[in-house]
Amino acid sequence: MRRIVIGGGQGFWGDSNDAAVHMVRHSDINYMACDYLAELTLSIMARQKLRNPNAGYASDFIGMMKSCGKEAYERGIKILTNAGGMNITSMVDALAGIFKEEGLSGMKIGYVTGDEISAEIPRLLSEGISFANIDDVGDFAAIKDSIFNANVYFGHEPTLKCLQSGADMVITGRSTDSALFLAPVMHELGIKPDDWDNLARGIIAGHLLECGGQGAGGNFDYDWRSVPQMDELGFPIAELTEEDFHIKKAPDCGGLISEQSLKEQLLYEIHDPANYFTPDVVADISHATLTQAGEQRVKVGGIKGKKRPDTLKVSMGYHNGYQVAGMLSFAWPDAYEKAQYAAEILTKKMKRKGLNAEEIQIDYIGLNSLHLDVAETTPEQIKNLNEVVLRYAVRTREKGEAMKLVPEIAPLQLNGPPGASFFGGRPKVREVIGLWPTLIPRDAVKLESHILEVK
Questions:
Q1: Cβ neighbours of residue 366 under 8 Å, at least 6 residues apart?
Q2: What does the DSSP assignment read for 254-308?
Q3: Based on the domain organization, do 299 and 326 belong to the same domain?
């Protein structure tokens, strides 16, 4: 019976490499997929590439490959990742250099290009594509000249083509997280591109693994105290055949694979369980089952699929002004009252300076910065606060407007209510990256698959 064992080696850009390296060395995986991208990540990478033409990808993946890339190749473990971000070819060149030094002659690196379409926007506009905001907010004409990046969320097709061409590793840009897992599942199990139920199984396998440790007891709201060895957290692994679908983890590491931990991940970011839209299939988990099938092993069933959508999502990042935030901490007694008074002083100063702000946000960290209006703010609660941090932030169209706040934070240590503590240096003005989600016809995107062989 055909079988694939695929691990999730990364949950985001900046995640730990420990679980991935452990998985390569100690599990029975034959594939590992590593997700690095989010909407803002691509815009950050685009800015990096503007400053340095050789940057713009997740260099963390290079570090991971220096640790375990040779072992993975020698053990026959194929690795897929969207760490290529905004500069796929530069990442491929860097990896090829490393693998050449390690003597891995003959290794094939597949890579996918064509998901970044900002240069194509004028042509696509002329062809009648409007780039309307999915949330029906704003006018595209107002932001089209301020775009940093425009990346298409694409599915399995170009990645599968790389695998069919013999790739030992595949590097992509904005492949969807789950498609990185679906492509090898299709390749190994022989799933057809219109077998919607089995495509949905592959997508949900990817969905359960794409967030790394979150599927194995990390960020576990149900019972986080029960997760063993969280300092050595292992990431989830999917084992699929033509009939069965199980989630497990590598041996000799921490973490928890249980019905409860996987239920949290299964529902993560899914608005409608009956209609989870991806470029490959509309997955239906409304009748999904999760059944404990042994220690650290859960069986997944009941996954159904529907025909894929005719459009693909595009995420655009654009310049949307500037922001700056300053913080002051206050200790008991009367911590909240002091912080409120400091905020009042800053507000009066900003008014005298004629601050032209798009938004002013005042938070009291330690009281209501997370729960906002539903936080408990009874007189007793406020009286007993050990400490609170005032965070005063402004967002502006012009950089000079944001600069008006910068010199006003530090002086409140001596010129405001007692006990203010200033930390972190003067606040820095930062560019705001706005996000513009839109849809375009599937056939408007031209993705290309390539193979580079290490010599």
A1: 335, 385, 386, 387, 388, 389
A2: B----HHHHHHHHHTT-S-TT-EE-SS-EEE-TT-EEEE-STT-EEEE--EEEPP
A3: no
Instruction: Give residue 424's pLDDT.
Output: 85
Instruction: Give the range of the structural domain holding residue 214, as residue numbers without chain letter.
Output: 3-115+153-309
Query: What single letter denotes the amino acid at residue 108?
Result: K
Which pLDDT value is given to residue 321?
A: 97
Task: Show which of 280, 309, 338 is a domain's final residue.
Answer: 309
Question: Could you tell me if residue 442 is inside a domain?
Answer: no
- 147 is a domain residue: no
Pairing relationship of beta strands 311-331 and 430-441 according to DSSP bridges = antiparallel
Residue 269's region, left for phi above 0, alpha for psi from -120 to 50, else beta, is left
Tell me: do 297 and 381 sit in the same domain: no
Residue 40: pLDDT above 90? no
- Report the domain count for the chain: 2
The pLDDT-based confidence of 68 (bands split at 50, 70, 90) is very high
Cα Rg for the chain, rounded, in angstroms? 25
pTM exceeding 0.70: yes
Place of tokens 């408990």: 376
247 shares a domain with 191: yes
